[in-house]
Input
Amino acid sequence: MTQSNGTQTMGILERRRIEAEILKPVYEEMVARLGEATAQEILGAAITKAALAAAQSFAATEPEGTSLKSFADLQPLWTKDDALRLEVKRQDETHFDYNVTRCRYAEMYREMGLGSIGHLLSCNRDAAFCTGYDPRITMERTQTIMQGADHCDFRYRFEPKNE
Output
């Protein structure tokens, strides 16, 4: 999944830091003009659309088509630079279950003064990304480090097409 322009050789953590540096003053201006609730609604919608588009772009590069395995094979982009520490609970053709026990994304957003919107900048992308990548993949998560839990519980399911 590397591209010649170098955008995918950079880890996602570093990409999110750069994006957050750009979005922070934009978000602050939206809050000042529109209020916090509206600013968060706009930011959340924009980030979700970006996640869907990114996922569709990744999916389009899969020569054999998408699957839960090809989805899981993307994980190193998100864990690069020790960005996430994972405990895989189950991984097979229809399940990819893991807990995140350390999230440097959450740490970074808090350090940048963006902890209150870290879930919009990062966590809210996850379900949209799996849907955009392959609609047969669903994600369940009941808690996140970003919002105060001691771990994030990712549970992905793959429903193969009925042939």
